[in-house]
Specification:
This protein is mainly β and 128 residues long. 3% of the residues lie in helices and 48% in strands. The protein is globular, with a radius of gyration of 13 Å.
């Protein structure tokens, strides 16, 4: 049974940093693309960042480029999202997901519908 479990969310002041982690079980993520998405109530799930199975292709949403960093630790079967300079508008639920490596283009890896398993989400709250 595949499970993705996010952790690291919480309350942080604007301008602060948080590191989210996603631990995978039942699947070896070394052969999967991994992505982070976020979703506010009543909105569509929004792409944040993605990393290809090899780590050789990394993509970010324009809104987080230069502020967030995605990384993958195949040995520990985890993927992380280091977030810095957080803003109140970053206050949403963050999800990690895995994706079969049928492609590594930005278009493919930034599409929520192209992902398979999802975690339950972790909430980030940024106070102003």
């Amino acid at each position: 049974q595949v499970q993705l479990v996010e952790s690291g969310g919480g309350l942080v002041q604007a301008g602060g940093s948080l590191r989210l982690s996603c631990a995978a079980s039942g699947r070896t993520i070394s052969t999967y693309n991994m992505g982070w998405f976020r979703q506010a109530p009543g909105t569509e799930r929004e792409f944040v960042a993605a990393i290809s199975w090899s780590g050789g292709n990394i993509y970010y949403a324009d809104s987080v480029k230069g502020l967030f960093t995605i990384s993958k630790d195949n040995a520990n079967n985890t993927v992380s999202l280091q977030m810095s300079s957080l803003k109140p508008e970053d206050t949403v639920v963050y999800y990690c997901a895995d994706q079969r490596t049928v492609g590594i283009s930005r278009g493919f890896m930034s599409t929520a519908g192209a992902y398979g398993y999802w975690g339950q989400g972790t909430t980030v709250t940024v106070s102003s």
